[in-house]
């Protein structure tokens, strides 16, 4: 099963979210926060072009094979770097020599560099293995503490009555 960046991001954000997403539950389409993120993506860095790899869509890649990802978040998160590492791994598997990545946070005017080396490659491969194991599980992973679910489009599924 091909894994995209969303799978890896959900794994690191909430394994239960990944498990539900892999089974076709997609409440993101009704989420105002997701819609806001799409507007941020569409209105910043407008001169760039998405790179569609089939299983994943990279926001853009600059000369020298640096992967760029734009996030509407106001704070960097480990899931964002994991997603960029996954994209680096996918490009490397296609024979591209990748230098690393950058996560852009336009709302706070910050960037975070994501290195690409043997350690990052091992982390990306480990994330893939964890994602596949989570998806293959017959029962959903435990839900996170409710405080971690603020703004999540899966909140009603996990915490609804």
From TrEMBL:
InterPro entries: Dna2/Cas4_DUF83, PDDEXK-like_dom_sf
Domain DUF83 residue range list: 5-159
Protein name: Dna2/Cas4 domain-containing protein
